[in-house]
């Protein structure tokens, strides 16, 4: 809100109260510190807010409700390749499993309308993770009609080198999940297991000089009051590509935290949970005072990640604009409507005037740039493997989807020449997207779009909550 607008609002009832609220807010989560131009690009926060609110968010919401984009095939039973799962509610007996395969209709290897809970030997363990088990359980309900359609959908997939460790869709433990029945929200997953996942992502995969001892992981204990500034001083000293890598991970982390704050378990009365925004939790994760100034930086990284994935959508538009590409579900009319909506979104993404310039990355000498690009790809691929170490099924589902979506966006950004050479009426051997990559790409961007929209909601809620205290 500009100063002029604030002055104009004085003396006008509610507007005057909002003026007082704005001036008396805690320093800057929603006003001063999450505004202005983003680092490493020419785009500003306010432009993204307006573009997302009025153009992208309403259309993305509709797209995610279409059948093609609401079903995602994922393997939630892959073992962690790095350590034995030992975290809160990650014990095997505390998971809700899909129906036994013998009860699943012929042709469908995963997904069911029933669930069963294995009896644990340790009653205390069940009691400790009862809530997280319930909140993190996957609703695997699917209609028989949907199951039959999935067999045909599989014929449309083809693959190549990836930024992510992809699930084997032919695995008997891979299953289709209805994303609308499994919204991303608070599950109670926390403690050593969650800390270990994020610590491995930040400390072992983000780029950091050996001379820097300050942990990258925002969940790690602070080493001092000045850590934040010294941390960002050396971060700015890294090359563009390594700064971008950190900002992508930090932005993804911020987006996930925003989803949990916006869809928090507020109370559970008579067995009916009530979900909604939790202002206290939002402040704990993003308020500049409680985060020693880092919260607003995390939110800016969210905007940076949004800009990267937005750029990828604008670059991949020619792939989908070809008549040979169908968003196939078997319903010709619905499929045509889905593609029309998707192409409309692509037109909006191409109209955005302040895109990130991916050509600024890996632009040095060819040998060094190629080596750095491969290192970048392998680091991100390793992070996608860490998602199999998440000890909560619902957290793992959304972690894998959003990681694959970002990986697909990176694949697109670094495949410009291949996309430009796409044939109009025949499949391309140089560049191809599987259905799973397409679903992950659009849903991951939909999550970012929702995060930025929820951030606007928290601005209003913070104003109202402060108003009641005056």
From TrEMBL:
<feature type="disulfide bond" description="Redox-active">
    <location>
        <begin position="89"/>
        <end position="94"/>
    </location>
</feature>
<dbReference type="GO" id="GO:0015035">
    <property type="term" value="F:protein-disulfide reductase activity"/>
</dbReference>
<keyword id="KW-0676">Redox-active center</keyword>
<keyword id="KW-0274">FAD</keyword>
<feature type="disulfide bond">
    <location>
        <begin position="129"/>
        <end position="164"/>
    </location>
</feature>
<dbReference type="GO" id="GO:0045454">
    <property type="term" value="P:cell redox homeostasis"/>
</dbReference>
<comment type="similarity">
    <text>Belongs to the EROs family.</text>
</comment>
<feature type="active site">
    <location>
        <position position="395"/>
    </location>
</feature>
<keyword id="KW-0256">Endoplasmic reticulum</keyword>
<feature type="binding site">
    <location>
        <position position="185"/>
    </location>
    <ligand>
        <name>FAD</name>
    </ligand>
</feature>
<feature type="binding site">
    <location>
        <position position="285"/>
    </location>
    <ligand>
        <name>FAD</name>
    </ligand>
</feature>
<dbReference type="Pfam" id="PF04137">
    <property type="entry name" value="ERO1"/>
</dbReference>
<dbReference type="InterPro" id="IPR007266">
    <property type="entry name" value="Ero1"/>
</dbReference>
<feature type="signal peptide">
    <location>
        <begin position="1"/>
        <end position="32"/>
    </location>
</feature>
<feature type="active site" description="Nucleophile">
    <location>
        <position position="392"/>
    </location>
</feature>
<keyword id="KW-0285">Flavoprotein</keyword>
<keyword id="KW-0560">Oxidoreductase</keyword>
<keyword id="KW-0249">Electron transport</keyword>
<dbReference type="GO" id="GO:0030198">
    <property type="term" value="P:extracellular matrix organization"/>
</dbReference>
<keyword id="KW-0732">Signal</keyword>
<dbReference type="GO" id="GO:0006888">
    <property type="term" value="P:endoplasmic reticulum to Golgi vesicle-mediated transport"/>
</dbReference>
<dbReference type="GO" id="GO:0005788">
    <property type="term" value="C:endoplasmic reticulum lumen"/>
</dbReference>
<feature type="binding site">
    <location>
        <position position="187"/>
    </location>
    <ligand>
        <name>FAD</name>
    </ligand>
</feature>
<protein>
    <submittedName>
        <fullName>Endoplasmic reticulum oxidoreductase 1 beta</fullName>
    </submittedName>
</protein>
<dbReference type="GO" id="GO:0042593">
    <property type="term" value="P:glucose homeostasis"/>
</dbReference>
<dbReference type="GO" id="GO:0034975">
    <property type="term" value="P:protein folding in endoplasmic reticulum"/>
</dbReference>
<dbReference type="GO" id="GO:0016972">
    <property type="term" value="F:thiol oxidase activity"/>
</dbReference>
<keyword id="KW-0813">Transport</keyword>
<dbReference type="GO" id="GO:0030070">
    <property type="term" value="P:insulin processing"/>
</dbReference>
<dbReference type="GO" id="GO:0005789">
    <property type="term" value="C:endoplasmic reticulum membrane"/>
</dbReference>
<keyword id="KW-0472">Membrane</keyword>
<feature type="binding site">
    <location>
        <position position="250"/>
    </location>
    <ligand>
        <name>FAD</name>
    </ligand>
</feature>
<feature type="disulfide bond" description="Redox-active">
    <location>
        <begin position="392"/>
        <end position="395"/>
    </location>
</feature>
<dbReference type="InterPro" id="IPR037192">
    <property type="entry name" value="ERO1-like_sf"/>
</dbReference>
<keyword id="KW-1015">Disulfide bond</keyword>
<feature type="binding site">
    <location>
        <position position="198"/>
    </location>
    <ligand>
        <name>FAD</name>
    </ligand>
</feature>
<feature type="binding site">
    <location>
        <position position="253"/>
    </location>
    <ligand>
        <name>FAD</name>
    </ligand>
</feature>
<dbReference type="GO" id="GO:0071949">
    <property type="term" value="F:FAD binding"/>
</dbReference>
<keyword id="KW-0325">Glycoprotein</keyword>
């Amino acid at each position: 809100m500009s100063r002029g607008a604030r002055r104009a609002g004085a003396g006008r009832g509610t507007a005057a109260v909002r003026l007082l609220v704005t001036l008396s807010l805690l320093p800057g989560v929603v006003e001063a510190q999450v505004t202005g131009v983003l680092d490493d690009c020419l785009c500003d926060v306010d432009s993204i807010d307006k573009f997302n609110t009025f153009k992208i968010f309403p259309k993305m919401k509709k797209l995610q409700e279409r059948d093609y984009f609401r079903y995602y095939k994922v393997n939630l039973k892959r073992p962690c390749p790095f350590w034995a799962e030992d975290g809160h509610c990650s014990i095997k007996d505390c998971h809700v499993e899909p129906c036994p395969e013998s009860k699943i209709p012929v042709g469908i290897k995963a997904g069911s309308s029933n669930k069963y809970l294995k009896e644990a030997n340790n009653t205390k363990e069940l009691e400790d993770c009862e809530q997280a088990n319930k909140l993190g359980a996957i609703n695997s309900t699917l209609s028989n009609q949907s199951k039959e359609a999935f067999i045909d959908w599989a014929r449309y997939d083809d693959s190549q080198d990836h930024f992510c460790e992809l699930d084997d869709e032919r695995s008997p433990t891979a299953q289709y999940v209805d994303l609308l029945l499994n919204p991303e929200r608070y599950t109670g997953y926390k403690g050593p297991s969650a800390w270990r996942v994020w610590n491995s992502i930040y400390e072992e995969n983000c780029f950091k000089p050996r001379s820097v001892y300050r942990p990258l992981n925002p969940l790690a204990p602070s080493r001092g009051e000045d850590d934040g500034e010294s941390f960002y001083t050396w971060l700015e000293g890294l090359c563009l590509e390594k700064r971008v890598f950190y900002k992508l991970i930090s932005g993804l982390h911020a987006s996930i935290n925003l989803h949990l704050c916006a869809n928090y378990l507020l109370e559970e009365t008579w067995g009916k949970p009530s979900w909604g925004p939790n202002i206290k939790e939002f402040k704990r994760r993003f308020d500049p005072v409680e985060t020693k100034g880092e919260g607003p930086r995390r939110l800016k990284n969210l905007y940076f990640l949004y800009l990267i994935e937005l750029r990828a959508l604008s670059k991949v538009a020619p792939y989908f604009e070809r008549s040979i590409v169908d968003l196939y579900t078997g319903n010709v009319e619905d499929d045509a409507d889905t593609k029309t909506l998707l192409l409309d979104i692509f037109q909006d993404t191409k109209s955005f005037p302040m895109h990130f310039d991916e050509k600024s990355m890996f632009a040095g000498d060819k040998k060094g740039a190629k080596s750095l690009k491969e290192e970048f790809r392998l680091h991100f691929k390793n992070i996608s493997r860490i998602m199999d170490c998440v000890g909560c099924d619902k957290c793992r589902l959304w972690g894998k989807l959003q990681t694959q979506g970002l990986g697909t966006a990176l694949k697109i950004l670094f495949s410009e020449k291949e996309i430009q050479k796409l044939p109009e009426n025949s499949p391309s051997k140089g560049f191809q997207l599987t259905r799973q990559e397409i679903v992950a790409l659009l849903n991951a961007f939909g999550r970012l779009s929702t995060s930025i929209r929820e951030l606007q909601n928290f601005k209003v809620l913070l104003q109202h909550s402060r108003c009641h205290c005056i």
